[in-house]
Amino acid sequence: MTDTAPAGIPPTAQVTLPDGRVEIAPGAPQPSGRYANEDLLPVPVGGRTWTTYNFTALWVGMAHNTASWTLASGLIAVGMDWKQAVFTIAVANLVVLVPMLLTGHAGPRYGIPFPVFARASFGVRGANLPAVVRALVACGWFGIQTWIGGEAIYFLAGKLIGDGWSDAARVGGYAWTMWLSFAIFWALQVAIIHRGMETIRRFENWAAPFVLVGAFVMLWWMASRAGGVGPLFDQPSRLSWGGPFWKLFWPSLMGMIGFWSTLSLNIPDFTRYGRSQRAQTWGQALGLPTTMTLFAFLSVLVTSGSQAVYGKPVWDPVQLAAKTDNPVGLLYALVTVLVATLSVNIAANLVSPAFDFSNVAPRKVSFRTGALITAVLAVLIFPWKLYSDPQGYIFTWLGLVGGLLGTVAGILVADYWFLRRTRLDLADLYRAGGRYWYTGGWNWRAVVAFLAGGVLAIGGAGLKPLFDGRLIPALAPLADYGWAVGLCTSLVLYLALSLPAAGKRRTAA
């Protein structure tokens, strides 16, 4: 790893403010060339305006969605009671908050997005490896969430309009009105992202309280139908707090962490707009673990109430809302579900791959073009087929995604915090031949650590419904701990490979 700029390259023209934030020196030329474009360049200090509330609202908006609602219910379905499910989700989000804050630190300090941040460890060209992997994962999630949003429009609109909508002629196995609903929701998201990050910030600001109020309205409605809050706590448990629970706890914990594993990497895409480190630290700490735990708690109570009222638990909030015959209530539920899904899908699954695809060809692909590429790929993966088997595909998806992306997080943390002590050269992140060029633009140490961590993390994982079996059966005992195995392996191996080279340079100096 190269820690000093090669001979002949002038020192970076950057300045450090008293609060620790760094920017290109006033009057100095901005980085240019084939590895830079307007969307990837550092955000000037004057443009870093997001406050603690903005980051808190971002997380409230992202956490309150249909997928998050069903996380706790999924844990209950495999045997936990409401206390155990909420406990598992709370611990998972406290754990994943740590890499969120560690990788998010580079955002407000340097104003750079994730793919540029990854150049410091993987190389200016090598950063495309983790960026594309993460982008493809986000495309999958964007497609799935868009299909969920389309289903909400189709199902609830059918309750309002009638059988003419619900029983329309079928095309490709679905009513043509379902395809129309999917297309409408897809286009709405593309329209919002096309207006840029400032529009997204404003959207998240009002979406967060709107969705939170909607969740409490659903709780009030279910409590009134159940005859009070007492029945909402009566969900039976099939597990004690002994061995059976802990055997289920650890793989469930990794799955819950995997749910936000993409955000633990791409959080610099948002924190780069932060007014200060305090804003992103407090905003994330207040927004992520508290919001997810509260939302899980609400979902468990409402679902428990549905069992008392209807005789069986109704885990899907769309299906539950459709049980009301009040048109105003149905319309409110439809808007709430749409806002919730829009909020998480745009922030978590569209912003980040847009930057990732832009990083692959900065001179040809802008942020908006990258977003459009993401939206198109999300359709081409046939999300309706992926979501048709959620029990198998989603849980396999979470495990594989969490394990693979955990390896990237380990490398980023090792490089930025342990090797560089949070010091980066902004100009060199955008040019060939600088300190982050390594060999041909690639840092082989990061690639080796990524591959080794990835094999150990997901090599023994079950791959149903893709096919029956495991790639490396001998690694099966590690499969339930994929995220932790991937992160720790890559972090330790990257340091082991990099420290000797760093020591030699310090000795030569």
Automatic annotation (TrEMBL):
Entry's transmembrane regions: 57-78, 85-106, 174-194, 206-223, 248-267, 288-310, 330-355, 367-387, 393-419, 440-461, 481-502
Keywords: Membrane, Transmembrane, Transmembrane helix
Highest taxon of source: Bacteria
Xref: Gene3D superfamilies: Hydantoin permease
Entry keyword Protein biosynthesis: no
Family: Belongs to the purine-cytosine permease (2.A.39) family.
Name this polypeptide is given: NCS1 family nucleobase:cation symporter-1
Organism of derivation: Streptomyces misionensis
Organismal lineage: Bacteria, Bacillati, Actinomycetota, Actinomycetes, Kitasatosporales
